[in-house]
Amino acid sequence: RENKINKQKGIIKMANIYRTHNCGELRATNINEEVRLAGFVQTIRNLGKMMFIDLRDEFGITQIIVNNDNQELENMAKEVRKGIIEAVYNAQSGHPGGSLSVADILTVLYFNELNIDEKNPKWEDRDRMVLSKGHCSPALYSCLANRGFFPVEDLKTFRKLDSYLQGHPDMNKIPGVDMTTGSLGQGLSAANGMAIAGKLDKKDYRVYAILGDGEIEERQVWEAAMASARYKLDNLCIFVDNNNLQIDGTIEEVMSPYPIDEKFKSFGFEMVKIDGHNTQEILDAFDVAKHVKGK
Question: Which residues lie closer than 8 Å to 104 by C-beta, 6 or more apart?
């Protein structure tokens, strides 16, 4: 995977760096001759910060969009938040708080980290993402819609009787959803299975899971954490969304899992504490995770 990324970054160095007003809008056409003559016929996505390269023309590059500025990710996070509010408002039900608290992390995942293809949602070599706190589906749906898995307009049908956008993610009905979730505490177990399968199949995809801080009061989470360590799943990365709230109050009032970081460390995880709304801290955490080996 690292050799592949380095090769792709080499391609970028042979081209000018373009800043776009928004994703999908090319603002320059001055491509180096070396790149134009390479004749690549493939799509390379998700390099660095908001980088998209589309190499489709047999005789040269038809589109290149590269932006190393976190501002694009932060702008996209605003669009994701708009989608969350749009969905919950039109449904007159849902979980806006937990969805908004994870909006930035999901934005960085879907617009910077995940190796996925919206035109081929079941691509065998794609990265996987499990939203274990499945009731926060509006955040996931907004990211998927803005990434192009389905129309953004469909967010207004959230939780409607005839809509495929159910209150909880359904991998059988919604393009881009890797795991049906909603029963809290089960997501890490599913993510473990995906990560183990990747190792058995000698695949280089990565698996990501997002858990809620109230959710980790579930015993199954810690059984799964033991399994993550036992099988040395260094292709797995989890986020615990520590917004300190659950349906009956603060997590301290209900059943405190603090100190969360020390607990996961004791189960063999490499832990990083960040501000989940700070784009650069999120990006740095992903960089740390990619270099952790053997756990």
Answer: 77, 276, 277, 278, 279, 282
